[in-house]
User: Fold this.
Amino acid sequence: MIEFPKDFFWGAATAAYQVEGNNLNADWWEWEKRTGVKESSGKACRHYEFYKQDFDLAKSLNHNCHRFSIEWSRVEPQENKFDESEINHYQDVVLSLKERNLEPIVTLHHFTNPIWFARAGGWGSSRNIDYFLKYVEKIVGALGDRVRFWVTINEPLVYTYHSYILGVWPPQEKSLPKSKVVTDNLACAHIKAYKLIHAVYKKRNLPAPSISIAKNLQAFAPCKDSLRNRIAVYLRDRGYNFAFLDELARHKALDFIGINYYTRGLVDTEGWRLKNLLLDTCKKGHSQLEKNTLGWDIYPEGLYKLLVRIKRYNLPVFILENGICTENDNARRDFIRQHLKSLHSAMDKGVKVLGYIYWSLIDNYEWDKGFAPRFGIIGVDYNTYERTIRESAKEFAQTCKTGRLE
Assistant:
């Protein structure tokens, strides 16, 4: 029997663009229309309409927190023009969570940008950081009296990797130098937003908030033990997992460390060029691990190994995303169970963990992969929008209720 602390947070997450539907003013929406992607987001899960029912389901599953994101393009559809009705909507979202005793964990930027911001150069221009800060100030001013946890930016390096290195997400620019500029601007935006949010709370005599980013971590491993692969693993681990966190920690701009963990990266380099060292993965099917439907290795031990190393920051940790897309709900149940075991092992080693949030509460639009990947502990029928609680959700609900893993 494994026991978690009494004050532990248990929940699941959503992201606005992936579940709300009809985010007409987002760069992704425009990009979907322009490029003719295989599946566009459309109505998504209609969570914008059904959020109260979805939160009722979360409450029925014994969750005590919920992570969601604000869609910037909704609240500021045009430069410097805020839509008060949309801000009222998100105020009601927070109120609805509080009424159900679900602690709101609010993400301010989850991959999407307003079209006007993207056209102004997006995160490729340091001048645009001020736009983000104005938006942050507006939202924190509207929601701050009911929100304790803020996540400024979701997975900054996943964003730069897909948008500026692989070039498969908007704005589809393949440029290592540009990716470095964007990454630096995201770090700067967080540091400034961190100070701004604390200042707003102080000015209003509110209890100090708790602020972080959601940092995606991967457990990198060499496919075969060669010098080149070992160097590549070191560079990726250093650059991808820890450099961004180190920068924010240096500026004392983290109150906790938000972690998203899904998989490991099996490294098999084909040359000595920087591109090979940073990007090459095994394409020969050497991994013996179980996989999700996107082909990602399932590697719970990686969460333990990374958390033990995170301990050096001397900050509490919050698992903000951890999940599996699968048609096999037994695999989902096992995934949650095994990752909670790894998480608890790290806690036994002295890692202070605040809570565990599964990705995701409901099936959703998985970006360029469309609607096929099923991550939700609650299924969504995209013809009727009916929700179905999966068996894995019920087992997880028992752990949420008792704080125990049998």
In short: The CA atoms of residues 289 and 397 lie 27 Å apart. The chain is about 45% helix and 15% strand. The longest strand covers residues 210-222. The longest helix spans residues 176-203.
